[in-house]
């Protein structure tokens, strides 16, 4: 079938089987992360739910098993705001698995007040990008150990809110703006996928980034009325410019099943084999802002990220 903006994760999977493939989905205790994990597990993939809250992770696991009794699902505790937790998770995973086929960097935070991670990084940049950068670094040997593998970074059309401020990514000298912080972190997701693909694509590890769509999940729990108004105004402008607005002039909101579809598409669709580094939306190739597609920016972000997490990519013990 032809996929489109309102396709579901099950439709994006189609009749494919993933028996024996090993997958990790971060932020898999709810929302599109849980739906992505459920869809992969239903197709036979061995899925690790990488979650911050173990109790929520257990509930997510039970919901998957209830729907698919033969599903093979595991839980791993992962706090992306703590590089010590990231390294511990990656180390334990390497000790218990000999390869990794799919890494879905899905977890994220959106629009919090100025908050810092354990390492002092602005929370959105630290969680959405640096935590996943360090996690992917710790798992790259397993991804290279698979016959083919994919890294999927869940970004957002919100990357249009800001590029990377390479001089002050953590808002230490400039005034904090929660939309700029979010936009910067989502731009980083796209640049990171592009640079990963440039470095490892020839070795069989392809990387993608994507916009899942406008979805009502608890990701928006930090939004106050003023922030919501700014976000909806920007979304309305984008939708109208793209000719994708509904009768009210607003973009169409997606269900969780529809929101996870592009993640599944990125994981499994054969047509993407020759489109590594692509930015995706609505289960199709899409176009990101210029600052998110710059090779120079991607290389500079890679070097900055290594400095900020104090490690060389792929050399984490």
Walk me through this protein's architecture.
- This protein is an alpha/beta fold and 317 residues long.
- 43% of the residues lie in helices and 12% in strands.
- The chain is built from 10 helices and 8 strands.
- The protein has helices at residues 9-13, 31-42, 54-67, 83-96, 123-144, 178-200, 225-242, 256-259, 261-268, 295-309, and strands at 22-26, 46-51, 72-77, 102-105, 149-154, 205-211, 279-281, 284-285.
- An 8-stranded mixed beta sheet has the order 3-2-1-4-5-6-7-8, with helices on both faces.
Topology record:
Elements: H1 9-13, E1 22-26, H2 31-42, E2 46-51, H3 54-67, E3 72-77, H4 83-96, E4 102-105, H5 123-144, E5 149-154, H6 178-200, E6 205-211, H7 225-242, H8 256-259, H9 261-268, E7 279-281, E8 284-285, H10 295-309
Parallel strand pairs: 1-2, 1-4, 2-3, 4-5, 5-6, 6-7
Antiparallel strand pairs: 7-8
Features:
single chain; 317 residues; alpha/beta; Rossmann fold
Portion in strands: 5-15%
Q: Give the mean pLDDT.
A: 93
Number of domains: 1
- CATH homology group: NAD(P)-binding Rossmann-like Domain
Secondary structure: helix percent: 40-55%
The helix tally amounts to: 10
Dominant shape:
globular
| CATH architectural grouping | 3-Layer(aba) Sandwich
Order of helices and strands: HEHEHEHEHEHEHHHEEH
CATH class division: Alpha Beta
End-to-end CA span: 44 Å
Spatial ordering of strands, largest sheet: 3-2-1-4-5-6-7-8
Q: Major beta sheet, specifics?
A: 8 strands, mixed
| Number of separate strands | 8
Alpha-beta classification: alpha/beta
CATH topology: Rossmann fold
Rg to the nearest angstrom? 18 Å
Extract low-pLDDT stretches. none
